[in-house]
Design a protein that fits this description.
Elements (H helix, E strand, L loop, with lengths): L1 H19 L7 H4 L4 H7 L3 E13 L7 H7 L5 E16 L3 E5 H4 L4 E5 L5 E10 L4 E6 L22 E6 L7 E12 L10 E4 L11 E4 L4 E8 L10 E5 H12 L11 E5 L2 H7 L7 E6 L4 H4 L7 E5 L2 E2 L3 H9 L6 E8 L2 E8 L12 E2 L9 E5 L2 H6 L9 E6 L4 H4 L7 E5 L2 E2 L3 H9 L4 E8 L2 E8 L1
Length: 462
């Protein structure tokens, strides 16, 4: 009996030792496991994008100091400087339609696309959308059909999937890096209004922006767009805009050159542990609606302030950026199923999506004359404008859209997104009212400005 036990133990040890040995390839096919077939198929559809722009650069910032100007009467001095940006792009249509990042081509007067075979083409911008940080370019192929990358369903991408990042980092030439999907649904990463990123550890560096994040099936999972780094260089954390949102932008370019993203007509905040307890939720999840626009899709579906949106079409959402993303991947007129909690009770609600209304009309106006807002462009606030500028959709009044460098408005500290609430005690509800109040001020302006929810006062004598 003892000898039988010893024999059994020896057999177990031998089997364990055999299992501990590294596996040996049994065929040449196993020895040659490689990503090369995927790269060979998709790399020709990834291009380099060069954008040239002329910028005005202030010679000496002291000249713009109001105190300096008051004593010496000297205006800011500027000089022109040529600035070039480098990025990547993805051919998504065989007739020369290319997808890249908006920040790669923003402000560019001359845009050149270099194909993987080193041919170069002048490109024109079909669509540039700052909200999604995506742009669509077109080159004239003279009838030639170019290689393309098909869109993946980015909702099927999972944490742990192998992916390839293809682009032109630092201008060294087309480069392929490999990694995994590190996380999904990352928000609060960039200035994009629809922040919902695929995170990867595939190396992404300056110049990769606009390039392809590719699945092992050779499809476009996302557009590489940003990195997290304290030095500006690759640190193992990169982000890509999901293909499902990128597809909607390309569709917008094909249908008239504008992005018409669906709108739910509500704003909210993440559910914290305290909010979950107060709402009767078993755990912190979803988005607590803190404002619902009257007559908007959410209101028409019966949603109210205090409701918690937990999921869109069975996909959970944890913050307003995620909710906006899920809505934006649909078209206006689509019906989505929103899973909602109210007072501890949960239910499904059908919401018919729409476009944010432009009511009142925008009335974009450049402010002239001599007043604190000279050199600024303003327009009436509406849900459409509030969505464009990432402003509370319930805000009303007149919003500053842009401020010219070196203008009076710039010197007074005005910024895009500022909302003019009153001038000399008169409430401002429209561009017409603002123009009237500025002109009737008689050389003295007391203004109340809302900036990011904070009220500020400005007193100017002119």
């Amino acid at each position: 009996m003892r000898f039988a036990s010893l024999a059994l133990a020896a057999a177990v040890l031998a089997a364990s030792a055999a299992q501990a040995q590294p596996s040996v390839p049994q065929s040449m096919a196993q020895v040659q496991l490689t990503f090369a077939p995927v790269v060979k198929r998709v790399a020709p559809a990834v291009v380099n994008v060069y954008a040239r722009s002329v910028v005005r650069q202030q010679v000496n910032p002291i000249f713009s100091d109001p105190l300096f100007q008051q004593f010496f009467g000297r205006s800011p001095e500027f000089r022109q400087r040529v600035q070039q940006s480098l990025g990547s792009g993805v051919i998504v249509r065989a007739d020369g339609v290319i997808l890249t990042n908006n920040h790669v081509v923003e402000g560019g007067q001359d845009i050149v696309v270099a194909l993987s075979d080193k041919r170069e083409f002048k490109a024109r911008v079909l669509l540039a959308d700052a909200k999604t940080d995506l742009a669509v370019l077109k080159i004239d192929t003279r009838g030639e059909k170019l290689p393309t990358l098909d869109f993946a369903d980015s909702d099927r991408v999972q944490v742990g999937d192998l992916v390839l990042a293809i682009g032109d980092p630092f201008g060294v030439g087309q480069t392929v890096t490999m990694g995994i999907v590190s996380a999904l649904a990352r928000t609060q990463i960039s200035a994009s209004d629809y922040q919902f990123f695929i995170q990867t550890d595939a190396a992404i560096n300056p110049g990769n922006s606009g390039g392809a994040l590719v699945t092992m099936s050779g499809q476009l999972a996302g557009i590489n767009t940003a990195i997290f780094s304290r030095t500006g260089q690759y640190a193992g954390i990169g982000f890509a805009i999901p293909a499902n949102l990128a597809r909607r932008v390309v569709e917008g370019a094909a249908n008239g050159g504008s992005v018409k993203l669906a709108w739910i007509g509500a704003d909210g905040q993440p559910v914290t542990a305290d909010i979950a307890r107060a709402s009767g939720l078993p755990r912190p999840e979803g988005v607590l609606l803190k404002s619902v626009y009257p007559g908007g899709p959410a209101a028409n579906a019966g949603l109210k302030v205090g409701d918690v949106a937990i999921a869109v079409d069975a996909t959970e959402v944890d913050d307003m950026q995620g909710l906006n993303y899920r809505i934006a991947t649909h078209k206006p007129g689509d019906v989505v199923k929103l899973h909602v909690a109210t007072g501890g009770q949960q239910r499904d609600v059908a919401v018919t999506l729409a476009l944010p209304p432009e009511n009142p009309p925008r009335q974009m106006t450049a402010v002239g004359g001599h007043n604190p807002l000279t050199g600024a462009e303003v327009e009436n606030l509406s849900p459409a404008v509030a969505t464009d500028l990432a402003i509370d959709l319930m805000e009303k009044g007149v919003v500053v859209v842009s401020v010219a460098d070196g203008s009076i408005a710039a010197n007074q500290g005005f910024q895009a997104g500022d909302i003019v609430k009153s001038v000399n005690g008169a409430a401002i509800g429209s561009v017409g009212q603002l123009q009237g109040a500025l002109g009737a001020a008689g050389g003295h302006w007391d203004m109340v400005i809302d900036r990011g929810g904070q009220r500020m006062t400005l007193s100017v004598n002119g």
